Structure formats: structure tokens, C-alpha cells
Amino acid sequence: MAQPLVLVGDIGGTKTSLALFSLAERGSREHFVPLCPAVYPSKRYDSLEPMIQEYLSWVRERLVGDPNIVAATFGVAGPVTGRVCRTTNLPWIVDAGSLEKLISVQEGNVNLLNDLEALAWSVGGDPLIPLATIQEGEPGTSTTMVLVAPGTGLGEAVLCGRDENFFALPSEGGHADWAPVNKEQARLLEYLWEEFSHVSVERVLSGMGIVRLYTFLAKDIPAPNRPLPIPKAEPPADFPSQISQKALDEKDPVCMKALEMFAEILAQEASNMVLKVLARGGCFIGGGIPIRIRPFLESVAFRRRFVEKGRYSELLAKVPVWIILDPEAPLVGSAFYASRHVLSYRGEIA
């Protein structure tokens, strides 16, 4: 029989990544190598099902036959209720039961995870992926950690336990209220109130958050002198990347200031999460944005803002902080989850 495969997906508001993983071997990162990876623009599809159908047709052509898919796990940007998720940034309803019929796998072998829960499984269950250390800290014996990941939206999760006892708690903390910590941020909040009655953390810490920070800083600059035009409607999909690239190239002080503010607010939110669950074990920074703007997160300003919490500054200085460097981490996490919680319990892999 052909090797058993798990279909995994990382479903986001901008793009969806799909891949197959072989589960004949399990262990370190080299055992979790994606087969037939593909990326699709999420908004081009009315739901996940037609995307998967298109993907599987492409896979059959590449493999010259039907893959032996025995399970599937999808990390979805949105709250999972039972076996259903209504996505936050897409008009989709993702239903595990419907996907089981589409993929033709045993009932119960399709699992939906919150996207941050899937990402958490790539770092919490085993040391599967590469990390960059922002603050070494002194983790001690604590097994409680947190994960904060800005992308299309802002995802957060809590990680508990180690090895066989590891589990992850999903969160929608990105939609909690955002609070400024200085006069400049207070002006930013007043500016955002002109557009939103509720300013969540995600309004600032996301791809569109970068655009809002840039617009806030550039609005009082005469148009001819602005490094990039302020979008009058929906900005181009690559506009956050344009701002980031100018900042990374040190070509414009406004773009650089926008990313400096983004990094400092991210540090504030990360340490907020640490304090809320007393995550002495560490804090992971994930998502595509942190990988891209890594130099701004490795700054003294980021570390200073992370620990600036008054009486708890000493505690926060001892908390390790890492950036997740593997862009395939959500897929690896979903595959690892499937190997632990679906297939091994059913005896479908050794």
C-alpha cells in the first residue's frame, strides 16, 4: 500500500497553503517535509471545498495517481466551534464533516484547529523548527508559553506542557481592546477612532495595521513629499510590503518610523500575553510579518518595550522571546498534530 499521507492546510484571509505530509516517519523537522506544496489566493474561492478539489486534481497529475490520504488537519483563521469554523476574514464556513466526504477519509479523521493552535504545535510539541532568539531570559522549569502572530489579522495562543503532555489553547485576543502607552500612541488611537468605534489590537498589529501606521504618520506631510501615496480606498495587497521594504532599505524615515511603532506595539502586546497567563516559559513571535521585519524586532527598542511593565519589568526580563523563522511552520504544526491526535490513536501509522 502507498505510504499514508495527511493533507494539511493553513487557511488565512489573504492566502491558503496546502500540502501533503508523509507520516510513515515521525520525529524531528526533517521528517516533516511537505509534498506537493501549493499556495492559493483565498478570496478567489467561495469556500474551501473547490480549492481542495483543484489542489487534489493537480496532485493526481503530479503523482500520476491517487494519493493515499488518510487524514487532514486545517489551521483556520477564526474560532472553531465543535467541528465547524466561520472564518474571521473570509465569508467561509469550514465544516470538518463536509471535508471528510470530499477527501474520502474515515469519520473523525479531519480536524480543524485555530490557525494559531496549529502554529503552536510546530514549536510546543517538539523542537521542530528554527527560531531566532530576541531575548534569552531565564525560562527555568515553567512549561507555560505564549504565541503572538501578526499577519492578515493578529493571532494569539497559549502553550502548555511538554512532549506527550503538550497542548495549545486557542485565543481571539487579537480582537481585544488596544490601549496606548504614550502620547504618540494616544494620538494614533484618536486617529483610529475616526474610522472604528472599537479599536482592537488587530487594527494596529496586522498587514493593514502597517498601512494605518504609515497613513497616521504621513497624513500631515504634503502629498509630493510622501514616500508612498496614501490609499484613498482599499490599498493594493502589496502595500504593507512596499512600506516594509522602504523601511528595511532605510530609504524613508516615515516608513521606518511606521515599522518602529509596529515593533514597539507588538512588544507591548507580547508582554501583555505573558503577564495574563504568567508564561515564564517563553514567548514566540510568529507569522509572516515578523520574519520579514526581523531587524526591527531584534532592536533594543523592542526588548525595552517588552519589559517596560512597571513592577513586573524584572519578571519580563527573564522571559525568553523567539521569532519563528520557518514560513511552513503552520503546516508542520498541523501535520504534527495529526500524527499525535488522529492517526496514532487509530493505528493507521506505526
From TrEMBL:
The keyword Acetylation does not apply. InterPro entries: ATPase_NBD (IPR043129), Glucokinase (IPR003836). ATP binds at residues 9-14. GO terms for biological process: glycolytic process. Signal peptide: none annotated. It is an enzyme of class 2 (transferase). It catalyses: D-glucose + ATP = D-glucose 6-phosphate + ADP + H(+). Keywords: ATP-binding, Cytoplasm, Glycolysis, Kinase, Nucleotide-binding, Transferase. This is Glucokinase. It comes from Leptospirillum ferrooxidans (strain C2-3).
